Amino acid sequence: MGGPAFLTGAAGALPSRTVAVLEAIRHAILAGELRPGQALVETDLAEVLGVSKTPVREALKTLAGAGLVTMNPYKGAAVRVVDGEQARHVYDARLLLEPEAVARAVAGGHDWRPAHQALDRADGARDQAERSLANRAFHRELYAGCGNPLLVRMLDDLRDQTALVSVAAWRYEPDWLTTPSWEQEAAEHRAVLQAAEDGDAQRAAALLRGHIASFVARNFPEPAQENHR
Questions:
Q1: Residue 90 DSSP symbol
Q2: Which DSSP helix (H) or strand (E) runs through 55?
Q3: pLDDT tens-digit map of 188-223
Q4: DSSP readout, 95-152?
Q5: Which residues contact 148 (CB under 8 A, 6 or more apart)?
Q6: Helix axes 84-108, 128-143, angle to 10 degrees
Q7: d(Cα 143, Cα 173) in Å, to the nearest integer?
Q8: Cα torsion 158, 159, 162, 168: sign
Q9: Which H/E stretch holds residue 153?
Q10: DSSP secondary structure of 38-52
């Protein structure tokens, strides 16, 4: 296994070795350095990152729990392959939870400056992984003030899978698109944030619901159903 520059540079950037390994592998997956379906061999990753196998093993377990990695007792770990069914399940769960959480955050009053900062980071992102992680931070800033820690935790648990789905969609966009879909998503984000700042909870929730639904409908439509007589 080669030594991607980001993986090599990221190790040791955080105080905890395991957390540093976790963040390095997560970023490499979202940046496409580690491709969907690619085997994640502990010894190879440990060599690239300059650590023992133990923090790599723990990081892979955590990433499996977050939905970025699959674990097979016979084949080992691999980067999760995103399919339409998985994407629809992730976004269906978000549709049930996130608009309500955002409406509650708006109704309760919230400091939206961190959300603006996340959008600015997304606009200035150098790659898909940075943009996806900034978007993830933006969405969290929308719902973090909902007043229900359990609801926040449930949405947090969906964030890595959402990022993986987004990157997969951006990666396979057709060449004929004149405007990248992430630009459309950025405009939708700003519209949601404006409604939130205006204190219009229902409008913010409706715009967010449309934003989530349109993304999955555009990129992972339901398969055509055959008519049976």
A1: H
A2: helix 53-66
A3: 999 999 999 999 999 999 999 999 998 888 888 877
A4: HHHHHHHHHHHHHH----HHHHHHHHHHHT-SSHHHHHHHHHHHHHHHHTTSS-HHHH
A5: 101, 104
A6: 40
A7: 29
A8: negative
A9: helix 149-171
A10: -EE-HHHHHHHHTS-
d(CA 189, CA 115): 10
- Pairwise CA distance, residues 193 & 191, whole Å: 5
Give the tokens for residue 149.
Answer: 């820690």
Confidence band (pLDDT; 50, 70, 90) for 42?
Answer: very high
| pLDDT confidence of residue 202 | 97
The packing angle between helices 17-31 and 128-143, to 10°, is 110
pLDDT band per the 50, 70, 90 thresholds, residue 180: low
- 99 falls in which pLDDT band (50, 70, 90)? very high
Q: Give the neighbor-by-neighbor strand order of the sheet with 76-79.
A: 39-40, 76-79, 69-72
SS3 (DSSP) at 165: helix
Neighbours of 152 (CB within 10 A): 18
Distances from the Cα of 154 to the Cα of 93, 125, 148, 214, angstroms: 10, 27, 10, 22
